[in-house]
Amino acid sequence: MKKYFGLLCCLIALNACDDGEMVFDSFNFDDARSADCGLDNAINTVFKINDNEALILKIDGGQTFFTGAGEPYIVDLFPFRNEMTANSPAKIYTISNDNRVIYRVFNGTVTNSYFCSQIPPISPAVIDESSTSGTGGGTIEITTRIIPADYPSVAAIKYQHSVILKNITFINSQGTTTYEQFNYGIYERGSNVSFAFSPLTDPIQRCSDARLIRFHDRNIGDDPTKEDLNEVLEFTISDAELEALDVGDTPIYTSEANKLTYKIFSNDVDSNFVCSGTVGNLNPIPGLYDEFVSLSGVPAQGEIPATGKITITKTPIPGTENFTYSFLFSAVKFKDVDGATTFTLSTHLFGSYTPAN
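Given the sequence above, the corresponding structure tokens read:
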């Protein structure tokens, strides 16, 4: 009779049977929504909450370095990268000490703030925890797709990451439980596009070519718990073109000659790297996370507003023969160079620039 009872226990478990006792009395997160702590916190942690239970996914995607004939370069393996190109393959991560799935039971209702606080609160307390083994095999499979938007903008771009767990084994003090396949569900992120440039800390700089550049570090201090993204905005226009402008406001429109390029890099960048690709003392070497280029703009046509408009204001510097130039971008449409993602930047003050004498 005991043998039949043991067999029945194994059949009841969801694709799971083990040599010890069952780890979970209940394991249902179907109605729970995946969450994180925002783009700037706990970047490798996603979690689901079901009252006093939590299912936590920790993936240290890591980075792979390659050295070719030229400069070494880096491939960013961040697991939930907002990237989608034609026929993008699933990303597969092997269960290890760095790539884990954790199941926790608390003595009270748990909320997002428990995971997003720098110092976890004392209450609720963890009363049971099961974690995948670092040597037990199994994989985490992530497939990404873009959610279409009728009116694309920075805020409208969304990415869905579908997560499947295969052949994972949970271990706790009571024993082990193995799932041949478990659907973790959908994890949704907004776009990494933010245009977080600051006129006080991110001045315009000139490359040796016709590019004016501005970049912003979104993880000053390189906090290891935050995604280290660096934004770069490039505007192609030469000093000679600027000098030829009349004093005051001059509208021009984005084109192949006067284009904007928006890039997101993993890890820190500097002007030498952005302008010439020189790595210098940068460590680790930044990888290109995403790249968007402006589409050609057109002037207003009757009731149809202008697109891709760049208003350049030329202002004399008192007591000198020099000028400053400020740039206001309006209704600029960008397209991902590796895909079909587009968004429209409604307005953006690029800042002021004074050519060197």
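The chain is about 10% helix and 40% strand. Try to locate this feature in the token string yourself.
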